[in-house]
Here is the input.
Amino acid sequence: LSLSLSLTLTPSPSGNLHLNITSDGRNEKLFSLIEPYVYQFTAGVRGSISAEHGLGAMKANDIHYSKSPAAIAAMQRIKTLFDPRFIMNPYKTLPSQAHPALA
Here is the structure.
């Protein structure tokens, strides 16, 4: 198995760090080991798993690594206030179980 790792630090003021890991092909076992490690490390240094592009569909259910349950609940209340029918960016901003329509 061949792996390649690259880190890119974006210019100030954002200071985002982008991690890219590639391999010879899609390796689900490798992915399942690396992703939780990166999220846990990020949480340990009080970082965030989102950046200028938001969470997206792949990370919405992992927001708990960088936001508290109270913060997620507050975000859900704000989203529900502005989007009561859950039509703006569904499944891409908050955990799917956080919206009553998906429970």
Helices lie at 28-44, 56-59, 69-82.
